[in-house]
């Protein structure tokens, strides 16, 4: 679930290492973010049907992955890329690392990522709460983001840093999209004064500081599918999730992930088949409990456990052009307001 930025030095080193790998004639190089996961039999089936070997290159967080593609665009290290989302597509297009056009689905026009990417899955960054921790505090859940600035909710929320986490970045974008830039940063300043905890990434926030995992914070910035994952991985096989989503206005961001061809990459015909593969029925079903995202193909049956992951009815989805133009500026301002 967690994806975004990293140090330039580490990027350059990893990119150089990847660029020196031998390239086989019967190999399709697939760059993916670190959260990519599909059942091995599905990947093996694609290889057998197309007479190709898949070289899956894990590029780290989605932002890290994109930076690797940018650094190596003169000598592309992949033929196809999965995991560029609606927060990063503008940067990818501006950098010229994607082939400019791919077929788009008519079944999910709201998930359109533009001509260069075909949508594969989507999810929602939102607040999760630990039911037991909230009950223990004896305080009703906040009804608005502004409520979280009240003394009663001091030291309630932990969030990943937008500068180092795509989860934190998406949540910041949601607040700005809903409130407007000035009110949003005023809210963040109030949250700083009310005990907001900021950590590097989603894993640290969820598995260290979130109350569900013996941390001190009843609320965490996470995903709408996290409660379903809690049930799926529970050793006790509980019928209900110990956590739930708190979908407050301005606190929900719709993330859409896509697949596209790397500009200058090879194996174009097979790469296009891989695009179709990621949007095929078996993959659309499998990705729900492999990557904890919703399938973009509307007719895909949902996994039974996804009943614990109700989709928010209201969410923010700012234009990719706006995000590309102002995202870095907003992160810099957020850092000054919240951390300095």
TrEMBL record:
InterPro entries cross-referenced by the UniProt entry: ThiB-like (IPR005948)
GO biological process: thiamine transport
A GO cellular-component term linked to this record: outer membrane-bounded periplasmic space
Signal sequence, start to end: 1-24
Name of the protein this chain belongs to: ABC transporter periplasmic binding protein, thiB subfamily
One Gene Ontology term of the molecular function aspect: thiamine pyrophosphate binding
Classification lineage: Bacteria, Pseudomonadati, Pseudomonadota, Betaproteobacteria, Burkholderiales
Keywords: Signal
């Amino acid at each position: 679930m967690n994806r975004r930025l990293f140090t330039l030095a580490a990027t350059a080193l990893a990119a150089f290492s990847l660029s020196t790998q031998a390239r086989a004639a019967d190999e399709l190089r697939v760059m993916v973010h670190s959260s990519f996961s599909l059942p091995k039999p599905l990947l093996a089936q694609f290889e057998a049907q197309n007479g190709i070997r898949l070289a899956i290159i894990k590029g780290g967080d989605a932002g890290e992955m994109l930076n690797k593609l940018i650094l190596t665009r003169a000598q592309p290290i992949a033929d196809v890329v999965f995991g560029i989302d609606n927060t990063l597509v503008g940067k990818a297009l501006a950098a010229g690392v994607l082939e400019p056009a791919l077929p788009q689905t008519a079944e999910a026009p709201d998930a359109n990522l533009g001509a260069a990417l075909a949508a594969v899955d989507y999810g929602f960054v939102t607040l999760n709460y630990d039911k037991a921790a909230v009950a223990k505090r004896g305080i009703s859940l906040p009804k608005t983001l502004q409520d979280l600035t009240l003394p009663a909710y001091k030291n309630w929320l932990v969030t990943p840093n937008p500068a180092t986490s795509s989860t934190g970045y998406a949540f910041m974008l949601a607040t700005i999209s809903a409130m407007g830039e000035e009110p949003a940063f005023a809210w963040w300043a109030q949250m700083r004064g009310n005990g907001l905890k900021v950590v590097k990434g989603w894993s640290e926030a969820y598995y260290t500081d979130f109350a569900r995992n013996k941390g001190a914070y009843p609320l965490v910035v996470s995903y709408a599918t996290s409660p379903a994952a809690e049930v799926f991985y529970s050793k006790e096989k509980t019928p209900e999730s110990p956590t739930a989503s708190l979908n407050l206005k301005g606190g929900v961001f719709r993330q859409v992930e896509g697949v596209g061809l790397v500009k200058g990459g090879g194996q174009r015909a097979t790469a296009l088949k891989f695009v179709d593969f990621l949007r095929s029925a078996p993959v659309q079903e499998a990705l729900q409990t492999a990557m904890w995202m919703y399938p973009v193909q509307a007719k895909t049956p949902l996994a039974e456990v996804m009943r614990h992951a109700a989709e928010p009815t209201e969410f923010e989805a700012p234009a990719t052009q706006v995000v590309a133009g102002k995202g870095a500026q907003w992160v810099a301002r957020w850092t000054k307001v919240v951390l300095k």
